[in-house]
Amino acid sequence: MVTVMSELQVAGMMPAIAADLKVTTGQVGALVSVYAAGMAIGGPLFAWFLRHSPPKGALLTIVALYAIAQVLVPVIDAYWWVALIRVITGALAGASFGLSVTYGALLAESPQKIGEAVSIVLGGIMVGTVLGLPASHFIADRWGWQSSFYVLGGVTFLLFLASLAILPKREAATQDAAAQDMRNLRMPKLWARYLVSLLTIGAAYASFSYFTPLLEQSAGFSTNATTIILLAYGICAYIGNLIVGKFADKHAVAVLRIGHALLFVSLTLLAAFGYVQPVVLVMVIVVGFVGVTMNPALVTRVAEVGGAGTMVSTIHTAVISAGVTLGSAVSAVTISMFGGDPAIAMWTGAVLAILAALVLAAQSRTRQVAGAA
Length: 373
Description:
mainly alpha, Growth Hormone, Chain: A, 14 helices, 0% strand
């Protein structure tokens, strides 16, 4: 959870960072994208170098490096330095994501329980992602944005010590297993399922990245109320993730169909009624339940064809990170094109949700035709 909290960390303190570093809010917003780019590119590289290491040692190495990188962010008061460290922490977070999923699969009671086991891991990861924003918002408002990085670095170090003592050991992957993991990446069917993940997460983050301005500027919620609402969003994401995990092993496609439909409806209502506080409050909660919580079903579909090896899982993490970048970047473009209204980001997310549903439907149709043949 802790190693992905910095993904949207800067989104919760954009004005403070922009004023201190003498840059625009748009440039600070780009720090979310460069972090996600680090996850997408650097995460698989770290995983590749550590693919023959025991999973516990590999994961704790990444956690330790992440803690160090976090506390280095405020050392130099310059935008280029913050951007550089964001790329590095993104790469480390991406590697920790993939390694955690693989480790969770190894700890499952049986192959039939992999989806449920991974959902527990993803629950922590998803909550960490969404809590990064309200936590940083709270800390920066009281003690300055630099304190947010020091706190997260310190908490990560404590997590490293606890994990060192508690986590059970598992053997490293054999040469044959590692080689098969790499060969699985050549399957077109695997990349087709990656595409569904890309669009699904893109839809969720196209909207979530702009929840703060929607809540405060459009709906008129106070800063403290926004923090509480975002915290409630994180709690709902955690609960929804566990619920999805219970059904992901046997009903992954059905879960995704329902999730895409609810995401489209909720984002459409947010876009159309973003000035009505009760509607905004309810729909933000709904997005919390059905947005990023589709991850266990996405992971299950990937594992069905590619397994849960380190490289397949980490590349999937990279695809998910690319979805974060895609959603945030497309919303940034559409908002710039249509007048700066946060509602545009909600429309953008709704369109991406429809695209994800169409791609999933096409894959399901192809599978049915192949089965009939």
